[in-house]
Amino acid sequence: MKLPLRSTVGFIVAALGLGSAAAQEQSLQREDFGYARELATQSGYAAYKFTLPLDVYLHTASSELDDIRILNANGEVVPYSMQRLEAQKRVGRPLAALPLFALRGDPVRATQALRLKVNANGTSIELQREGEQLTELPITGYLFDARAVDSPLSALDLAWAAPAKGFSTHATVEASDDLASWRAVALSAPLVDLSHASDRLQQKRIEFGPTQAKFWRLRWTEVPGPIALTGATAVPVAVMMESSRYHLRAVGEATDRPGEFRYALRIHTPIDRINLELPDLNSVAEAQFFVPGGKPGEWRTVWSGTVYSLRASTGSIDNKPIEIPPVESNEWRVRIPARESTIPVVPALIVGWLPHELTFIARGEGPYELVYGNSTARSAAIRLNNVLSTGENGKPVSVGTAEVGREKELGGAARLQQEPEPLPWRTMLLWSVLVIAVGLLGFMAWKLARQMRQA
Fold it and tell me: Do 217 and 201 share a structural domain?
């Protein structure tokens, strides 16, 4: 298949551009960047991750953070990827060991015989039943005391000694706050401990919907129970928490328009939180926030509403940070209607954003170093999700945490303003000759094909 002349020339021109970009990228050295930070790592991990420091957003030239590299001790660029932190993250609460009590005979009657008794050391649970030798009855269930746990549970982790032979059974889990009224939270939950050769299959966790209760009861579906429990651990429900954001305080200046202020930021990242720092307590104002629109001199409204700062006995009560759709702009304006523009000092603009998490492969020897700040650099980030999600035997790769050191100046702020270096004239001449030669070759092929069709 022959390519048309136009496609051939276009391909060569594109190759010329890629070749020049690659040549320029290979020529970048550590000193070509503005700043650096050493990364302290512990041995034994194939990869490491860390959250980008705030100064990186202030000392980079690219809005996409293209001018970032991770170098090893030999100054070689190692593979890395970046992703912005999620707005919310699931955080697990600490596990809690639960006191347990064996229930013998009929578990319902055994539970009804339980009484709470207050002694010098606090509240305890005692079994009071007359007319029966409890030690001679089989264990039919267990009672767990969860009064010390102040959050809902999502599971119980059970523990038992290695059985002489394997078993597979089921159990029912119930919850109560007074040892009298019980509600089922898990019916016929499977519990397994089976072995074959060197392999062992265990299922020790019973999961259920979020439930908060003071007492928990487990009843075996077969009597007697297959094993004796040696412990139980409460698994609290994980909570969703807001990820920590970076914040920047920008000092503005008044414009010629009464009640209007302008702000110039120095960051390259989408902003999703804004606020005003009012200079005086007991201040309330209707404020409008603007960023440049699509046309010169046009301003687009990002948010409008009430901001306030009120005096209280414990300090001040301020409005919460304002949530907005992500906006990337270094120019902002805030307008307060003239009737409310009695603020004597220009209010500070507070902006917030979610930082990035950077993951890099530990290729070569450490110490590793984060370098950043070069207006001519192009992105060197790659996707590492597939690499890190499947390691040996299909298990995820273990990723360590790198500690970020203090910022060191290399080329400084000048690296953020420099222009791309022009291509060497010899390289340009060589590529020009090649393009012309390929063009002539394509023209000759086209002319020959035309003559063959006319013959």
Answer: yes
